[in-house]
Amino acid sequence: MKTAITIDEQIKLLDSRGLILDIDKSKITEILSDIGYFRLGSYWFPFEKNITYTNRTHYFKTGTKISDVILLYYLDVDLRNILYKTCCALLFFLIFLSNI
Known about the structure:
This protein is mostly helical and 100 residues long. It has one domain (7-98). It contains four helices and no strands. It is elongated.
């Protein structure tokens, strides 16, 4: 089992693996506190140099910025919300039609 590391240590680890920290450190700390290191890991996966599940090095492709990872995360959040709202509207519409 891996031991937990602090958010400052997480930031240093990301930096040592080649992730460009183009956002203020206090904002990165806030994001890692809110979203979480491991949840964001799913979103930086496509930016890693070796992207096989069995042999991940966790090093980033040249030029990868943390802002890119965060934008991808929020794009996913927004798309999920749009899909959820659309499905709810469709469901309500179908219920309305069944009651006519």
